[in-house]
Amino acid sequence: MNKLAWILALPLVICSLGRAQSSAPAPTPPDSGQQERMFFPRDMFWGWGQFDLAPPHNEIDPGICAGNAGQYGGVNAPCSMFARYMLSGMLEVRPFGRGELRRFMVFGAPSFLFGKTVPQTLYTWSPDAIGIEHSWGVGIYIAKGFEFRVTQHFLFDRLGARDTNLGPADQGNNGPWGRYASVGVRKYFGTRRW
Question: Which of 5, 18, 123, 171 is a Cys-bridge partner for 56, taking CB atoms 3.0 to 4.6 Å apart?
């Protein structure tokens, strides 16, 4: 078997092992007298949203401009993409309401960055749009709070007038973590049930 086939088969194997070892009954919907729909159940969306404010001298660095950007123009440096504000979130969608497909989900996690700052040179409260850092993926709930996930993280997408080369301090659209794909296992804690 090639590596891709193993990666795709791994969640099914783990799911089977978890089901064979688990003696606990599967969770039931809150209204046990009413059967949940097969497609697009009522509880198919889960997520969170967050707003962050970075104080002066602690700006969010998306990795677009070099740390010494101030040397290339001082307060007028063209590469001023260090963020003051960040709006981020996560949305998980579980489109199936019954059976083994209920374990499947897709997710997206964008982060929107805003601001105009050059470290040690220019500190403003400007809400200028910088760009979007985003990733998406798929997951399968295994058992006992474990979930198998495949994630694709994309490059940083610049917004507005900053969607051009901003001089010698511009490092390109690599973003804080660059572009990558990963395979992982997540463990949930607490009282969250599927």
Answer: 123
